[in-house]
Design a protein that fits this description.
Structural class: alpha+beta
Strand content: 5-15%
Largest sheet: 5 strands, mixed
Distance between the termini: 69 Å
Helix content: 55-70%
Length: 439
Amino acid sequence: MPAPAPPPLRPWSRVWRYLVVIAVGLITWIAVTADLMPQDDGAPDEVVGRLGAAIVLDLVLGVIGVALLPLRRRYPTTVASATAALTAFSGAAIGAAGLSAVSMSTHRRWRPVIVTGVAWLVAGVIYEGVYRPSLPGTESSTVYFALAGSLALVVYAACVATGFYIGARRELLDTLRERAETAEREQSLKADAAREAERTRIAREMHDVLAHRISLVAMHAGALTYRTDLTQTETAQTAQIIQDNAHRALVELRQVLGVLRADGGAGPLAPGSLGQGSLDQGSLGQAPHDGARPEPAPPEPPQPSLRELPALLAENAEAGTVVHLDLTGLAAGDADALALPPVTLSRTAFRIVQEVLTNARKHAPGTPVTLRLAGAPGHDLHLEARNPVPEVVPAAAPGAGMGLTGLEERATLAGGTLTHGVDAAGRFAVTATLPWDER
């Protein structure tokens, strides 16, 4: 598996590397110059000339080593070996050779490391065993030769270790970045799936209401058709019932099509499919055009509303979650006020309370929940639920967090808002505001 390409360097990152290389090269060159220059002023001109040429050559080769550094990322092994070879005749090239060795080692491949290590070893042998002793006025011994060679290998080993560390750190950062991006994509997909599931759930719930309204219209219309013995008052009452239910069905249908309309496309229900398939052949009792009677679908259970809130609180109390219900903000101020909100609003509020209590049981078992409902027709229905955050939070269940995403989508589709989080008192709070239209 090829090593990932190193990330591009920023201008300052490139500048400080070159400054360190130049500083190390100059310090080494100054030390070499002080070592080679004759101590007495009576040295022959030929000796001074040879030593001066060696010092100038040392500096020139150091400059060449620095000039090769921009190619170290494209040709890491070649540049590292070339700059190491320059150190056979130049101490000023040691900085460039060190940076090239570090850059080459970030790929963490042992073959280039060995090749470059051989170049370092050969260059050290040539410098200490051949080149330096050939200069006039310099001396060398076996001990000095061994120490110099060992120092070169130690420096090279330090450069290799540094390069391996940098390469491992880069790979770790790339892995963590990839994991974070993957997690963000998965979270986004989960959120989208939760929104779509919530839309489908709303469609399933609204189906009950529409089917109930249309069936009442069909039944009373049939009574007007076949009952010729009705008085004028009874006929007017039946017509009024048909009008009321038809109006409510239209309101519910408008809400369904409004909240289920997807961005830029059709939602789970389309107007055409709702008209032909569901109403003409099912609710109104007409036979299909091909003469075949469809299999009746099993009836769905009636969707809950705030009327069932006391039963829900009793179930949670049996499960260990005590709920303190505050209805003083509603008109009646007691359980009878739960029947005031319209069907859609009542169902939305019930689903929010249901999910909030489910989260409380999962993430804060045994802690009491304070639930407050307030509002009036023509204004908004305010719902607040708060529970203490336990000191030791249980491990999240699979899919944790998607329920709140669904609630946000449900509240938004209903024209309201929902927020959640830890308040200043350290309690987890869910606050929803839903429009409450007058009937």
